[in-house]
Design a protein that fits this description.
The chain has seven helices and five strands. By secondary structure, the chain is an alpha+beta fold. A five-stranded antiparallel sheet has the order 4-3-2-1-5. It is found in: Membrane.
Length: 232
Amino acid sequence: MPSRQKKVLFCTAGVLSFACALGVVTALGTPLWIKATFLCKTGALLVNASGQELDKFTGEMHYGLFHGEGVRQCGLGDRPFRFTFFPDLLKAIPVSIHANVILFSTILTLLTMVGTAFFMYNAFGKPFETLHGPLGLYLLSFISGSCGCLVMILFASEVKIHHLSDRIANYNEGTYAYKTQSERYTTSFWVVFICFFAHFLNGLLIRLAGFRFPFAKSKDTEPAGASADLMY
């Protein structure tokens, strides 16, 4: 492949990596991972609410990895609230899982920035033959994609299996009990998903640049060996 085309492919991969790094950094600081609605069960049962009356007892909230906000409703008007995971919700959430989500998000950001530098170095510099060359790019892309996958799996398990939204809605509520009605992933979560996909797309760009996947056997090796044996 001509050198110019390789530069274009590596530059494209570098730009994708840089955009992913910026996206993950932004996602870490924004409360736009989950948007949920929850019902005030206590209030609804007291007045035997049904149908459209349930709207007066339905609140909503959105949150990220560090903070969030929402509105509680129990038939007496809106009750806005804000919260932070550290230190407000330390006793209510699965701290180990939540900390791992933040940790792998940070690792994802760092590796993506390193990958950006390596892609640009391979495009405009003279790459080394080991970690600075194609093998290192494959390795970084694979590890970064795996970190993105872990972030999504851990966060999804925290939300769905450990009922994170229920824990947040019921935190410091001794009188009323709340039950989550709906949850949906929002912008920041899908940014991580796009980054996960982009890292494996970078692997394809490296292959298009003419570099074989790691541990792939060359098709030319066996015929060359066979012809050498025939010569002797």
